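#onboarding

Welcome to the new folks! Below is a worked example of what a typical request in this channel looks like: someone posts a single protein sequence, and someone else replies with the predicted structure as tokens. Don't worry about understanding the tokens yet, we'll cover that in week two.

Example request:
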Amino acid sequence: MLNENEAHVWIVRAEQISSPSWTHACNKVLVQEERARMEKFVRARDRQNFMIARGLTRIALTGCMPSVAPQAWRFRQTRHGRPEVAQPASKTPLRFNISHTQDLIALVIVSGLDCGIDVERIDGKVKVSELSPHVLSHNEQHHLSGLPDEYQTTDFFRYWTLKEAYTKAIGLGLSFPFDALEFDLTLAPAALVSHAGNNQNGHWQFEQWFASHEHLLALAIRHDHTIGRHIIRLHDSPTIQTIRSML
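Example response:
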């Protein structure tokens, strides 16, 4: 079950993504439209990631609302491609967002509020100095330039994951210019201090942590003053027995 002051975060790792038992459980709950879409992927790895991501979404939503079977969920896409729950209709619908990168899939579910999640593998080969002017505000670039070289890549990905989680939460994703957003990483937790020049401090809850020694995860949840800060319920590497119990 999902309480209104909770955010459930699911993390699935490489061993689950490639597991035959996980494959069977997730494939079992897909609807025909999803199976057809899955078959359009050329690479087997992409088909597997799609199956696990969609299957996990259906199973986790049912874990939050057990009265709805995994295959009964119906989805729609917003104008910018963000998936949302279409059916069953509810006065306070479940909101979700999913992200996947190499060897890891992450999902967040919240009751009735915008949310976004991003997970990235920290790549030391990324040319931070070339990308920063296109991704970071002037103040963020100044912060980054003052760090030792070995910390610049990590903080660049901290900015990136926070910005992508936020833009996914507002339904725009990568279509929104990242350099129009400004985060303050010196605060704990990090805070969005400017959205295209408008003060956003206090309007959003952000969380960020290392999902592994090389994966960084960021979470954005629209703040509701009647609820306060959301409690994060983490389901990290759930067992197949846990998944089967929700089918």
